Amino acid sequence: MSKRRATSLGDFIYGMFITLFFRVTSWLCSVPMWVTLILHFIIGLSIKWFWATLVIWLIAGILRYCMIVFGRWGAAAPEPKKENKNPYSKKDI
Length: 93
Prior knowledge:
By secondary structure, the protein is mostly helical. It is about 65% helix and about 0% strand. The longest helix is centred in the middle third of the chain and has 29 residues, at about 45-75.
């Protein structure tokens, strides 16, 4: 069985797909989009409102995912070793 080679772009796109389409919060935030689509068919609201809410929903999801990715990158940086300057602490335990 061969292992899949990880690529950062592939992982980013896969994470975006998971974030936008399988998260409950993402579906709850898409309610205005579905309401405008229903109003388009019921009362004849312009379809431009649906496309506008769809674009806003996608941009909000992309920005939320980018914040998560950038936060994860910052947390992965190792801390540098510091010299123990306390004369009362034991160096070897």
